[in-house]
Design goal:
Elements: H1 3-28, H2 30-36, E1 43-47, E2 50-53, H3 58-79, E3 87-90, H4 94-99, E4 107-111, E5 116-120, H5 127-143, H6 145-149, H7 155-166, H8 178-181, H9 194-201, H10 206-221, H11 224-236
Parallel strand pairs: 2-3, 3-5
Antiparallel strand pairs: 1-2, 4-5
Length: 243
């Protein structure tokens, strides 16, 4: 077989594998499929990065657009940049959320190599929840998908950072120091993997407060915000993270 023939066979195989992987992603993640065909899920695209359910009121549509802009600005202010514009799928009804694969979470971020999607339930339509998910997207961009999937950063650290970035007052107090801001401290084990986080997050929401407290203490001992961002960039370059 000549060289050109080999290249054609290899190229065809790679294209076939990519098509299969894309089909599996769409089948397993309705939220991803909905970005391709919003109308198939009772949604409509109102901008390049915002898809809403058809039943959403005009007032709520206006508010979610404003909240998304404020959340992106908050994340940009913390990280110094937020170049990715994730697609937000927002539901105003429980039926819409279930149709997109929702199982009770306020919101879920899917950070994929080719694009990012955030599915938001009716209970999560606010600036705080959006900023939390936007933080996950930016953190994933910085460390890379490979490091995220292979445990380059523990789940609790990712969640703690997102709580801090979004300034979620369900899990943080006002104040400047970790002692002032910590709502609940725990020296026990916190979720290490995304699977553990998904299993515990719904049943034990206090882990978000505990994770945020632990990250605040880590930041206080490691150069604050600048130290955190530098660490994320180093993790993305292959350095091992030691909490």
């Amino acid at each position: 077989m000549n060289k050109n023939r080999v290249l054609k066979v290899v190229s065809a195989a790679l294209i076939g594998q990519a098509a299969i992987c894309g089909t599996l992603v769409i089948a397993l993640l309705p939220a991803v499929a909905a970005t391709v065909c919003p109308s198939c899920y009772g949604l409509e695209r109102i901008s390049a990065t915002l898809i809403l359910d058809r039943d959403m009121t005009a007032d709520l549509r206006e508010r979610i657009q404003d909240d998304a802009a404020k959340a992106a600005a908050r994340v940009r202010a913390f990280y110094g940049e937020f170049p990715i514009a994730p697609t937000v799928l927002a539901c105003s009804t429980q039926d819409c959320d279930r149709w997109l694969g929702g199982e009770g979470a306020l919101a879920v971020a899917y950070s994929l190599p080719f694009f990012s999607v955030i599915r938001v339930s009716s209970a999560g339509l606010n600036e705080t929840v959006l900023a939390h998910e936007f933080s996950h997207i930016e953190l994933s961009r910085r460390i890379g998908l490979y490091r995220q999937l292979t445990g380059g950063l523990p789940c609790w650290f990712n969640e703690g950072v997102a709580v801090i970035v979004s300034d979620d007052r369900r899990y943080l107090r006002e104040g400047q120091s970790p002692q002032d801001r910590c709502l609940e401290y725990s020296a026990g084990a916190l979720p290490e993997t995304p699977f553990e986080g998904a299993q515990l997050g719904g049943r034990k929401p206090e882990i978000y407060a505990q994770a945020a407290c632990r990250v605040l203490k880590w930041m206080d001992a490691n150069g604050g915000r600048d130290g955190l961002i530098g660490t994320l960039d180093r993790v993305g370059s292959g350095f091992a993270f030691v909490p």
